[in-house]
């Protein structure tokens, strides 16, 4: 808690200091109230004089008015500090979460992070507000009442001290037993958030398999578990108020008994006994409120520890010390960046001719004995992968479910860091790139098509905020999405609901592909991003990407290399290089023609999809798409003269 106050309280230092001081002034008035009441009793009621009663009443009214003003000022400062710090904590927490790597996010989990940024921050906010408003009030009131009572009579004060010790000890034992329960309650809230998130995000699947009852039982079990913990805390806490009031009224009886004797012998006045009872009541009630504050601060302490755990987590993927990579000509060339002012080549043929002496055009992508294992995993998810992809070439990655395809391509934009080996993009290890620049060079379409609420335009300009409408329409054309976007009344400004729920699966995939194409990436990764597309659209997409690369090469720009992850042979068979994966290992690497002769796993995949052992002509390769333009698709017909689509 103190770490958060130190880190985020600087801007609200005045509120954190002046707020408790205002409350302290209010408490001073509360401590003087019993003294004035005693004066009214002794000087007014005891002597049957109205004047002291009226004077004392006027003083009490004036004190109450001033106390209210200071209380309102304290309330305003508490609100400013708590809400302001809560906003700052949420902002920093969200910003920090977005800086964490996928491995870090996997460690915490989405439901837990959601709970921390909402419920846990709320608990911290509440503790800050109550700390300003009440943390100064009740302890000071309890101590002040004790001192004032002892000043009236030391012997009666002993009853006061004993009763406070009994109540304080009871609260200490109860709070000590409750603290572990409060900590476990937050973890159980994470479990409830996880079940609710799964049920709502997968509601269609749940209904399709008639699992509503199962999901209700899961949520009920988690809620009952959390409720059982809350009830256990409630049982422990339930003894506090009855015992406190029992001790308090027993102490009042003892004070009235002993005080009455002293009044009879003239050692105390009636007003002093009443004031003494008032001070003791204030003190014991202050202990009750302090105990409630302990509950709040215990919860807040557990929540603050969870927030600090996230803020203290150092991202495992950083670009600290990385220098910007300079591009020369059509690719980055080590050692020749200083010759950038020599001018860019005008055509693809001039690229090699214009290179400095001894320099070669570097590959777009190189994997050197790359291995990766998830934290805590017994085996590598990717093991000893080695390959090279030149500009303009296409790499197809194929394999069964769980073979490591998505894990492999997630290493390219450095979503994860390889545990062994090196991943190089444009001739430089990805760990030497600045992350922002690397992810400008690498465009990735994830397996799950995800759009955010807003408009089509706001989703497309993620990679390049300065992209023009022409750039956006060009990307939509390449992604085969322009037709349905033009059909929308608002076009690029058509609304997008959260998650893109107002679009079909295929439309969402095409929009995410278009988003990746905006900004002209040099390495485009399509992670099973055409799974919801029909064969005709899939084929048209491949034709468009091939044409895009050919046009880039003809204009002298670096043609993008494309990595296609798919379970369809039809989507990868025309690739310049196909990587066949099984259980994280590269079991085959070559062209379609080579793999159907040499790779048993690839042969099995082809056989399972009804793909015949045919020769793929060079004209099928990426930058010679003319023959692909003749593809037509309908059930049971031929996609092209090179590949047949069979429907079971």
Description of the structure:
There is one protein chain. This protein is an alpha/beta fold and 648 residues long. Strand 11 (577-582) and strand 12 (585-590) form a beta hairpin. It is elongated. The chain has 22 helices and twelve strands. The strands form three sheets. The protein has a six-stranded mixed beta sheet with strand order 6-9-10-3-11-12. A four-stranded antiparallel beta sheet has the order 2-1-4-5. It has a two-stranded antiparallel ribbon with strand order 7-8. The chain has helices at 2-8, 13-45, 50-99, 102-108, 110-135, 137-152, 154-201, 203-208, 212-238, 240-264, 270-312, 348-353, 405-410, 435-441, 456-460, 469-478, 482-486, 505-517, 535-554, 569-572, 592-598, 600-608; strands spanning 365-372, 382-389, 394-399, 420-425, 428-429, 442-445, 454-455, 495-496, 523-527, 561-565, 577-582, 585-590.
Keywords for this entry:
elongated, single chain, disordered C terminus, alpha/beta, 22 helices, 648 residues
Indicate the topology:
Layout: H1 2-8, H2 13-45, H3 50-99, H4 102-108, H5 110-135, H6 137-152, H7 154-201, H8 203-208, H9 212-238, H10 240-264, H11 270-312, H12 348-353, E1 365-372, E2 382-389, E3 394-399, H13 405-410, E4 420-425, E5 428-429, H14 435-441, E6 442-445, E7 454-455, H15 456-460, H16 469-478, H17 482-486, E8 495-496, H18 505-517, E9 523-527, H19 535-554, E10 561-565, H20 569-572, E11 577-582, E12 585-590, H21 592-598, H22 600-608
